[in-house]
Amino acid sequence: MAEIEIGGLEDGDRTAWQELFRGYNAFYGREWPEERYEQAWHDFRRDDRIHALVARLDGRAVGLTHFLFHPSTTAGDVCYLQDLFTDADLRGRGVARALIAAVAEEARRKGCERVYWHTREDNATARRLYDKVAENRGFIQYVVPLTTG
Question: Mind listing the pLDDT tens digit for each residue in 42-74?
């Protein structure tokens, strides 16, 4: 298999990025209007508050991750890996692992003390990888929705 390359978003990634992000949202039962993808693309390309990396095989984007840095009340700054998605046909080939490693490296460069993320309890496929590359510290997430959608 070709080597997985990780890098920032490039102009030519727009269509593949949106397909991957649409797949991610569908996995979690969300449908976004086109203007939300447009806004997200511009936010990620600006690369100031939120960040994106894509995994490429043979020059084609096959996985994505979105992440941000923020302060912590109990430690130094931390990195939240918010979204992670791999083309379904390429799962199990190291794409997600490479994306997680790249986010961890970015967080190290920024001086963060840890990278963390959430996943659904029933996401067994992803959790098999996560259990190998990270610690499950047993936290449960609660959410108070403030808007619909």
Answer: 999 999 999 999 999 999 999 999 999 999 999
Question: Residue 45 burial by CB count (10 A; 0-12/13-18/19+): exposed, middle or buried?
Answer: middle
Domain that holds residue 101: 5-133
- CATH code where residue 119 lies: 3.40.630.30
The answer to the question of residue 109 being in a domain is: yes
Predicted TM-score (pTM) of this structure: 0.93
For 34, 86, 101, 121, 148, the CA distances from 39, given in Å and listed in that order, are: 9, 22, 27, 29, 18
Tally of structural domains, the chain? 1
Among residues 38, 126, 36, the alpha carbon closest in space to that of 81 is found at 126
